[in-house]
Design brief:
Largest sheet: 5 strands, parallel
Distance between the termini: 48 Å
Oligomer: single chain
Length: 639
Amino acid sequence: MAITLDPKIPSGPIAEKWDRHKFAMKLVNPANKRKYTVIVVGTGLAGASAAASLGELGYNVLNFCIQDSPRRAHSIAAQGGINAAKNYQNDGDSVYRLFYDTVKGGDYRSREANVYRLAQLSVNIIDQCVAQGVPFAREYGGLLDNRSFGGAQVSRTFYARGQTGQQLLLGAYQSLMRQVQQKAVRLFPRREMLDVVLVDGKARGIVIRNLMTGAIEKYVGDAVILATGGYGTAYYLSTNAVNSNVTAAWRAHKRGALFANPCFTQIHPTCIPVSGPHQSKLTLMSESLRNDGRVWVPKNKGDRRPPDQIPEDERDYYLERKYPSFGNLVPRDVASRNAKQACDDGRGVGESGLAVYLDFKDAIGRIGVDSIKEKYGNLFQMYQKITDEDPYKVPMRIYPAMHYAMGGLWVDYNLMSTIPGLHVLGEANFSDHGANRLGASALMQGLADGYFVIPYTIGDYLAANPLPKLTIEHDAFKEAADSVQKRIDTLLSVKGAKTIRSIHRELGAVLWDDVGMSRNEAGLRRALERIPKLRDDFWHNVSVPGTPDNLNQSLEYAGRVADYLEFAELLTLDALNRRESCGGHFREESQTPENEALRDDANYSYAAAWEFKGVGKAPELHKEPLVFDEVHLTQRSYK
């Protein structure tokens, strides 16, 4: 089908665009909402909030998740906080400043209108969550507390110790289960979406596999919402839950949804370092720790003394030295690259030399152990449990790790993909963060999309489009289900000798080495040679034990790795095509004399949206020009 990229950005001043758009959109009469069925795939913050909100409005909602409970969605792992421009600290924050910080933090590679709307809606999210009973931290007088996060010089992050994602998800889950109890939402746990069904060019349903029985099931809807998270586990080792995957988004891409900016991946600077080849995931240490922790390495190469034996004048607090205005709270991409540079210089710490210190000694001396425990107690406990080191007594050792995907399916201002009726929320879309997400903005985007954007925009789509009644007997559902079954049968028929995990680990090593924190032409071309060979090896030599007619986690895993072996090629191709550095995408050929990311605005000020043309075939690039009327393009600086 012919694809036209129309972002549907409303006219008018940026501060009025969303309000004007809400008025201009078509509405669905309350009595008519019950006539429509909306499919929501995912129960994280974006999915649960969308399903709950749409159920509350009166739509019939079918909500699917791969876990046994919506509470196990990966949103629960978010630690540090959620941004909102409330300006409770009276420190100069505003909606415009949050908008500006987010555009700048994303290195000027996001769509201004979407980012401004996100900043506007941030203030509503906090009110919504407080009303739900989310136990945000409060000051002594009872007012909501804030702390700082990277890329901002104000304190706008609301938090619940180091468990903010968990508490926000429980709030959304309670709202969701209220709608389930009222039969406005039907919940389908342990189901994995394996295809989206198109009828007359519109998304009209999904095909899923029941992960308990193995049955292939088909569901009809008038619109489909994907809120299935990001693709960080393509790298094998990441901070994401091991079941996080790209499958739903990738299958939609193969049906015609363009995939935007897949090379925009985020490496988080504060993670517990890799300890050995036995690991299947890594553990995040919240960015909030950089409020009180100081990052340093020894000044001298190869210094292997314990940290308490290295005197102050032989320590390099390199973020404070290089970026005095922001110090340890520079954005994640900047902090990650500097940690890598320090370790590449031979000044890394720990047995591997691939770590830097995050030291709380000064903060403990300033405000006391009890205050640190109150702020970060569960994070310190988690660190000690994993490393057997007490961070109250010795500095934490941290190193960057794959964490988040700014890229995702392309969506317009209404959060609709290039497939009419297929809407994409949260981390699964590309829309708000550009080339680098600021800390505490993922939770903000997921809840803004689910609670405050999609309830308006999906009504406009439903009211404006003829949607004849369908059943699962339609030929399109049969074709999609047959395609899903054929792929499952093929996976089980290979009967090779290699484990799924060993191939995934190989793919992760290729991506981390050549498409990781630092990228160059030679490495990217090397990866583009190796990935198709790995994919071919997978389809000839993988071993997928068991049968398809029951719980088979090996089969689930094999399907996801098969999709990653296709997706990884697009990720790498996008990184090769974007011959500039911006945010988390750092091309060694494009850097300033101070080794900072150097953009090429003349040639790359666009969102790269790729059209699928077949496995192993070159995808077609579509460009959405990025226009900056409010925030003027400058070389990003945090010095």
